[in-house]
Amino acid sequence: MGQRRKVGSTNTPSSQSESADASKVHSRKHNICMVSDFFYPNMGGVESHIYQLSQCLIEKGHKVMYNQSTATTCFHSLPLLRCVFVRERITVVHAHSSFSAMAHDALFHAKTLGLNTVFTDHSLFGFADVSSVLTNKLLTVSLCDTNHIVCVSYTSKENTVLRAALNPEIVSVIPNAVDPTDFTPDPSQRPPDRITIVVISRLVYRKGIDLLGGIIPELCLKHPDLHFLIGGEGPKRLVLEEVREKYQLHDRVRLLGALEHKDVRGVLVQGHIFLNTSLTEAFCMAIVEGASCGLQVVSTRVGGIPEVLPEDLITLCEPTVRSLCAGLEKVIAKQRSGSVPSPTSIHSRVKNLYTWKNVAERTEKVYDRVAGEEVLPLDRRLRRLRSHCGPVAGSLFALFAVLDFLFLLLLRWLAPDRHMDMAVDATGPNGLWKENRKNSDAGC
Amino acid sequence: MEDEAFSNISGKAISLDCQTHSSFCREFTVSSPKMSIGKVMVYTCSVWLLAYAVFFFTENTAVLSSAILITLTGMMLHIHFVKVDHESLLVIGSLGIQVSSSYASGREVTTFIEMSRIKDIVINEAVYLNQIIYYLCVLLKEPSEPNVVSSVVPLFQSSKPRLNCLAKVYESCQEILSKCQ
């Protein structure tokens, strides 16, 4: 049902001295549990965010463990989650993504268990259709007693605050990051006799693939040396294949299919222009990766995208075929005249904008703040639910909270905490592995 | 030869008996608690009361006799196939590992793993029902591919001792294994 992964780090002398200095600022190390439905092997923005953030936090001496599951509903995950939280001595539960059922479950149970909670929202939502109305209600209930919320951009913060009716003071903005060493420019990979436009995204409606289907024939007619390189997979692949068929563009539009994260750089460096056609986006990692590889970026002006890159590195367009074509034409003309900055100079500007180290430091501050706050006791939690989420949903979820608490009491009686073995830290500050690594290669 | 108080994962007391036959040969025996008379009573009574309730409405005596049969065969099957009295692990350096479990009825199941197939003995953790437990297991390898773990044999499967007990067995097993390598 679940798959767990625990990661630790060996403390080098330098990081020990660092943490000694830092201990004046934040006195204790946290045991953080990251919860999300999304994890390796399907790598996307959320997955790599969790992975990279965890790695950086481990370097800072925190203990991070990760929890993932595919199908859970309300109560039956409590025993297992409680076991994980108790065994690993978790102090902060950090849930990711509002699409993840398990993230909401874990938040709910963690509050029952009296642990501090943090939630990161990775996506934007509308307010109009039925699915977003329901998700927004769930989010309101789930977040109304969560200690702190993290959003990836200011647009996303605004969106989340409105959707979940939150106090903006407990919402922080911490952007995503890219690993600049993974995305370095290499102009020698570019074919000299043509201009290549790279698109890397999932081929779904949200990413504006229909717009792309309109742009391709129009630009290909005007510029005979223009080539498209499209990476990604999804239901909208059909649209692109139809366009390719209809205008006989087989040699100029290449569909690469699903790409692994490590192959993305190899595709990016082959292009001159990176095109993003998303219709909604909280924070676009892809355009940062594109710019980091030294490409000119053309993107739609939606969601949090205008915040991401400085104005001279990105060309923003309205999400229409005409506006995007005009934007692309302008960049193509610049590219031909050679008046664009060199890939290396773009890379050196982007590489310090978004680093995981910075993200980890800011997240750490959130944890420090949260650890000092008290978790609402049951009676106040119920009152908050009732007053915050409307009489019907509030009462319903207050009932759930009470049932969850009773279930927890039952579990504590059936299987007391003292019967659980505390997890042994293999590595990390008090790791056992250092001394007996020699006798056990794969154990403990 | 030592006896110390250990408990299994649900908090029941078990005992671990370590016998050192020679420096290369050690035997560990984990004994589970005996079947409690109270538990037997509860199960028997609940089956009989249920049968009596059915009998009260149907007035068919076959219900009562089948209830008696069910409890008797159930008890026999339980002690023959389910209830393990003690499990032992005999480690003989240079020769191999013998794992045996003896059931409450006296039935004994023994398997032997030769040294050339053993890669290592480790403590691993696993999701077991709704909890996460530590268990001791033997990693096997194929002699043709010495670096690949081909399969895993969990030890003390029915008694499920807690970590402190496992660590003790693990340490002395490693002592023997490291000597003969």
From TrEMBL, chain A:
Annotated signal sequence range: none
Keyword field: Endoplasmic reticulum, Glycosyltransferase, GPI-anchor biosynthesis, Membrane, Transferase, Transmembrane, Transmembrane helix
EC number in record: 2.4.1.198
Chief site of localization: endoplasmic reticulum
Keyword check for Endoplasmic reticulum: yes
Pathway given in the UniProt record: Glycolipid biosynthesis; glycosylphosphatidylinositol-anchor biosynthesis
Full protein name: phosphatidylinositol N-acetylglucosaminyltransferase
Organism for this UniProt entry: Xiphophorus maculatus (Southern platyfish)
Lineage, highest ranks first: Eukaryota, Metazoa, Chordata, Craniata, Vertebrata
Automatic annotation (TrEMBL), chain B:
Official protein name in the record: Phosphatidylinositol glycan anchor biosynthesis, class H
Species, as recorded: Xiphophorus maculatus
Any Pfam family the entry gives: PIG-H
Taxonomic superkingdom: Eukaryota
Phosphatidylinositol N-acetylglucosaminyltransferase subunit H conserved domain span: 88-157
Recorded metabolic or biological pathway in which this protein acts: Glycolipid biosynthesis; glycosylphosphatidylinositol-anchor biosynthesis
TM region positions: 40-57, 63-82
Family, similarity comment: Belongs to the PIGH family.
Key words of the record: Membrane, Transmembrane, Transmembrane helix
